Amino acid sequence: MFLEKMQKRNPELIEKALYLHQNNILEPDTYILDLDQIQANSALMAETAAENNLKLYFMSKQLGRNPLAAQAVVEAGIKKAVAVDPWEARTLAQAGIQLGNVGHLVQVPTSMLEEMIAYEPEIMTVYSLQKAEQISKIALRQNRVQPIMIRIYSENSFNYKGQVGGFDLKNLEKYIPRLIELEGVEIKGVTAFPCLLFNYKKQKIETTPNLELVIKTAKILNDKYGLTIEQLNTPSVSCQSTIPILADAGATHGEPGHALTGTTPYHAYHDDGEKPAMIYISEVSHIKKSQAYTFGGGFYSRSHLKNALVASTSDQNSRRIYPASQPEADMIDYYASLENIDQKLKVGDTVLYAFRTQIFVTRSRVAVISGIQHGKLKLQGIYSSQGRLIDKKGGLRF
Q1: 319-350: b or e for each residue (b if 16 or more CB lie within 10 Å)?
Q2: In this model, does residue 258 exceed pLDDT 60?
Q3: Tens digits of residue pLDDT in 295-307
Q4: 221-248: buried (b, 16+ CB within 10 Å) or exposed (e) per residue?
Q5: Could you give phi then psi for residue 19, rounded to 5 degrees?
Q6: Which of 64, 200, 222, 372 is the most buried (most CB within 10 A)?
Q7: Which H or E run contains 392?
Q8: pLDDT for residue 393
Q9: Would you tell me the crossing angle of helices 35-51 and 67-76 to the nearest 10 degrees?
């Protein structure tokens, strides 16, 4: 999905990925993160957000919850993270990253609330009165009042299957007074998901009814209940190009994730804004007739995988683009396949992919590198898909 843009906008990452695999430094099923470009992308968004009076929380799940990448984002100006689930929150907090939003998209299990509240997140998203009651009780025990954000939906909402939940707009009068009575929490925000989506036919980002719903609900809470809603949090496809859209609509917060690596759908069709900063290494495992099979482990069902770059040596004349496909969603991704259209593919050839991914749901390794934009490659370390350090590599320089 992003291979052409990678070749055009970050060819240095391709060169270093080939080098690292062909010199047996990195194994197949490894994502490489370009730390410097991630930081540059983050700085671009931080600057744009400041210009538009919008605040950002960054999402790290796409990056495998990687602590080095997270720290680079913080240093670039996006100071706090949104954790998609409490396990991500734990990984980030233990790495010294401040938590902005916890509980969205995954609610915090009851047994983990004590730990999550102790991390003192700026806000916690709740889907129900019962969860708010649990948070209130524990927050009081910790001698604090926890700001919460209600997730809202209505009959006009757009929701992904399996991600449904929250407070129904038509029943606000049933729940808001009871939420206000809770002494250990205070309602400070409203959110919904997704508030923006990419239209592939028009090749542009458009708003969903959820964005208007967040704005409408916040006004009700302010006007009818006298609350001070400080966060109108409007996630999905947050990037430099959408920050002005959110600000103009009245939103206060965005949550960039894929934009950190320049891999939102928008970036597959446009050359402005964030640059691609992530690539996936594989290798030809075996060949059967017209198909060459490459090692998997890091493929994602919504990746929009189309092509792969293959090279047998570092010589640019050996590089070729091949049509690629991945297993169906109901299959384990032991392998992906390439169409061996010229019958030149060989076992052991390096294969590079650039597609939309969610590293945290894979079994891949994550290699973090820096310096490639300045000709000074440094392998900072190799991590699991959950952000755990596997091999520091001594900060190898090449």
Answers
A1: bbebebebeeeeeebebbbbebeeeebeeebb
A2: yes
A3: 999 998 888 899 9
A4: beeeeebebbbbbbbbbbbbbbbebbbe
A5: -60, -45
A6: 64
A7: none
A8: 67
A9: 40
The answer to whether 12 and 46 are in contact (CB under 8 A) is no
H or E, element range at 325: strand 320-325
Alpha-carbon gap, residue 309 to 321, rounded angstroms: 5
* Domains by residue range for the chain, with CATH: 2-34+275-397 (2.40.37.30), 79-255 (3.20.20.10)
- Give dist(CA 246, CA 12) in Å, integer: 33
Residue from 5, 13, 29, 70 nearest 370 by CA: 13
- Say if residues 248 and 196 touch (Cβ distance below 8 Å): no
Whole-number pLDDT of residue 398: 58
Interhelix angle 129-141/172-181, nearest 10 degrees: 10
Pairwise CA distance, residues 149 & 241, whole Å = 25
Cβ neighbours of residue 37 under 8 Å, at least 6 residues apart? 10, 13, 261, 262, 275, 276, 277, 373
Q: Which pTM was predicted?
A: 0.95
pLDDT score recorded for residue 397 = 64
Phi and psi, residue 267, nearest 5°: -70, -15
**The pLDDT of residue 392:** 74
Which amino acid, one-letter code, is at 312? S
Q: What is the mean pLDDT of the chain?
A: 95
Q: Which residues make beta-bridge pairs with 321?
A: 309
